[in-house]
Amino acid sequence: MTADIPFTNYTRPELASVEAAFVKNFTDGEEIGAQFCAYQNGRLLVDLCGGWRDRRKTGLITPDTLFSVYSSGKVAAALVIAHLVDQDRIGYDQTVASIWPEFAAEGKDMLTIADVLSHQAGLSGITDPDWTAQDWYDWDKTCATLAAQTPIFEPKSASGYHPVTYGILAGEIARRADADGRTLGRILREDICGPHDIDLWIGLPESEHARCSDVIRPPAPADLGELNAATQAAFGKRTASPDAKDLPRWLSAEFAGSNAQGTAKAMAQLATLLLNGALEGEKYLAEDTLRDVRKSRIFGQNLVLPFEIDFAAGIMRNAPNFFYGPNATTLGHSGWGGSCIFADPETGITGAYAMNKQSNKLLGDMRPRRIIDALYSAI
Description:
CATH topology: Beta-lactamase
Number of strands: 14
Distance between the termini: 22 Å
Radius of gyration: 19 Å
Order of helices and strands: EHEEEHHHHHEHHEHHEEHEEEEEEH
CATH architecture: 3-Layer(aba) Sandwich
Shape: globular
Largest sheet: 9 strands, antiparallel
Helix content: 25-40%
Number of domains: 1
Strand content: 15-25%
CATH superfamily: DD-peptidase/beta-lactamase superfamily
CATH class: Alpha Beta
Number of helices: 12
């Protein structure tokens, strides 16, 4: 430990090297505030938090500080869809148009729910030239625009990462599939997170806003590689994502997969669903559902991100990049700025990293990677 950096850490004695890797991110000047948590087969291994909630270092990070984890929340959205699949409300091989008829426009009639979750829809962004950053807050307008839009690339020909539109598409599929027409964020809270005291939210109530850490933006833009139409739509203009200047509005909105708020511990807890389909003994996903959510849907060079990616149904598979430890069967996702969540069926390990000092790495930020590598070395 260091005298000038505040930490609140639980570490099993044999995992001291994991705590050391977490602390080193701070002593090297790479972090301001962060959390890391890991379990193995339901047993808590490490629960680490440290630093400050803001750049001026006026508020401390505590175990219940919420972080904006951006696309790490795509795992939560994918698990809500898996929950609905397990309830026989929908199926992965069912066409989206079968529950959302307007989505069939412009050649999208054969796209399945699994295709959309694995970023094959060709809707990496909204192409309407009159679209504004405020329009994202109009759910019906956003859904209608995506349903009517011509795909940017041929559907099913490749994956092209959908940074914001993924959450709208998954959210509308969930709303139409749910027996009561609930939003994806409500299903997550009422069916999964609430009953198990998991502190992860898609659509954060105003009563919880005061627990949120600041977001400290990176000094430089991300390297997107060679730009193309799919990348431009996803990232290349100011209106490609919702306007977050009105912070309370942004925190409260449901952009499933791009504005999730949570703790690292909550993400590590939720990730256990990817191991055995259960939380605290309550079964959510049968073995066939687990198999379907985890299996590869498309592998190859992504059209938006400069990586080869193996996508399952809304989740990244670890190979070929191995961002989440050494095992190819590990599943996970990274969020803009450096957060990540992962689940390893081979070892029973789940874990997550959340932080407020964003880097400009799109995937594979070295801060969590060093901690994850130390964890696997220690076990």
